[in-house]
What does this fold into?
Amino acid sequence: MGESKSTGVCKKGVFPKNIRQVLAEPQGYTMMELIMVVVLIAVVSVSVLPKFFDTSSITVEGAAEMVAADIRYTQELAMSSNDDKKVDFTQDSSTYTLKNSGDIVFRTVKLPSGVTVSSASIIFTFNSLGEPTAGGGSSVTLSAGADTKTITVDSYTGRVSSS
It folds into this structure.
């Protein structure tokens, strides 16, 4: 019999000939590695990006819309209940209250973080027709840092507007 050349235990082509071939072949990422990278990017984005943007103007805008809606709500509540209702703002406070005619607080509202009432204290009182009997023609100003927003109640109609 003739001699046969031994190529080792493995068949030809099953394993690379040397380590250089193993290192030279493109290596992919596993699904777990990709998920970890995405999670890491999301965590960094959520914690770092808000520090680059000034959100105080957005906060004051939202707070002003909320206050205007609560004033309108109180006005409508006065008309539907046929009883006077009040909205009470205190200077340098981060809350305001909605009251019945006997000054009984039925709701206290907290302004968003960093927003305060920067104008003088004022109480808007609405009668059963929705007309302002106190505070009409006046306004309340909200501020957060350098940003401000003013909510005005018309003296005759009780129309609520913000600027």
